[in-house]
Design goal:
By secondary structure, this protein is mostly helical. 66% of the residues lie in helices and 0% in strands.
């Protein structure tokens, strides 16, 4: 832990220079850089070692992509509702045999004509 603290201090000193009071704003950026840099000894990032997945740099998050630009909250909500319906139908098809599905779909109360 002390080694990482030393690296963070050194990085913040280089980045801030004389403006040492701005370190709280720069700390998340410094930590994300440290977590996404590959280590020679392990050939992996600290983020990957901790969480088992690749980390994303803040620069990559702020970069506009087609997916981010074409995002529509209304369409997304409708698509999620559709996906939930499809998942429920798939679940019913795999859980219950087709005959049980017919029984479940027929009304319980029938007319006596």
């Amino acid at each position: 832990m002390e080694a990482i603290n030393k690296i963070v201090k050194k990085m913040l000193k280089k980045k801030l220079g004389a403006a040492k009071g701005d370190w709280p704003e720069m700390l998340p950026e410094a930590l994300s850089v440290i977590n996404t840099l590959y280590r020679r000894s392990t050939r992996e990032t600290l983020f990957f070692l901790a969480f088992g997945t690749k980390g994303v740099l803040l620069v990559e998050i702020n970069a506009a992509t087609y997916r981010m630009e074409s995002y529509d909250p209304v369409e997304n909500k409708a698509q999620r509702a559709l996906n939930l319906d499809v998942i429920e139908k798939c679940y019913l098809q795999t859980t219950y045999p087709p005959i049980l599905q017919l029984v479940r779909q027929t009304p319980i109360i029938q007319n006596r004509d």
